[in-house]
Design brief:
By secondary structure, the protein is α+β, with helices and mostly antiparallel strands. The chain has 4 helices and 7 strands; from the N terminus they run ααβαββαββββ. The strands form 3 sheets. A 3-stranded antiparallel sheet has the order 3-2-7, with helices on one face. It is elongated, with a radius of gyration of 38 Å. The two termini are 75 Å apart.
Length: 181
């Protein structure tokens, strides 16, 4: 005759885990039904800051009629000669593309940065002296490439102007090396 073996442990580990999962689901349903979840989110959320805009106060308006006294005509001020705005050094047509001079080793190593190059540009758009690094990017290869780009750009700069005439001027040229995904 075959004996039937029955496990007498009512709460086995598997039964306890199942009861915990069912209890958790019942709690979540109860929280949604009673609005407990909404209250918890409202407590956790940071309220937006109060923004106060100072508006000028307008005095009381009146409907009284006021008399104006006619003034004697004044002599017209002399008209000043129209001043022509001065412009800064700019990049002209054919200026080298920075990406073409991105060092291969820097690309492989993921180096990026901004190098500021000090340049002096003459009235003809050419460099009057050798460019030098004003602010480093933190990577020597990128700094050298930035100086090379500035050097190759000689003759392709738009010179600065004063009163409409090109003049020599020193300035800073920011050159950014950024990897494109």
């Amino acid at each position: 005759m075959a004996a039937y073996a029955h496990d007498t442990d009512f709460f086995t580990r598997r039964t306890a885990v199942l009861a915990l999962i069912v209890g958790l689901h019942v709690f979540i349903l109860w929280a949604f039904a009673t609005g407990l979840a909404r209250k918890a989110i409202e407590v956790v959320e940071v309220p937006p800051p109060d923004i106060n805009i100072a508006m000028p106060e307008v005095g009381p308006s009146t409907t009284a009629i006021t008399a104006r006294v006619a003034e004697a005509p004044k002599a017209a001020a002399p008209v000043a000669k129209a001043a022509v705005a001065a412009t800064a050094v700019g990049l002209g047509k054919g200026f080298p593309n920075v990406d073409d001079y991105y060092p291969d080793a820097s690309r492989r190593l993921g180096e990026e940065g901004l190098t500021v190059v000090d340049i002096c540009v003459g009235p003809d758009g050419k460099l009057t002296e050798a460019p030098k690094v004003g602010k480093t990017s933190g990577h020597e290869r990128l700094d050298q490439a930035a100086v090379k780009v500035a050097t190759l750009g000689s003759g392709r700069f738009k010179p600065a102007t004063e009163e409409g005439k090109p003049v020599a001027k020193c300035t800073q040229l920011p050159i950014r090396f950024k990897l494109h995904s």
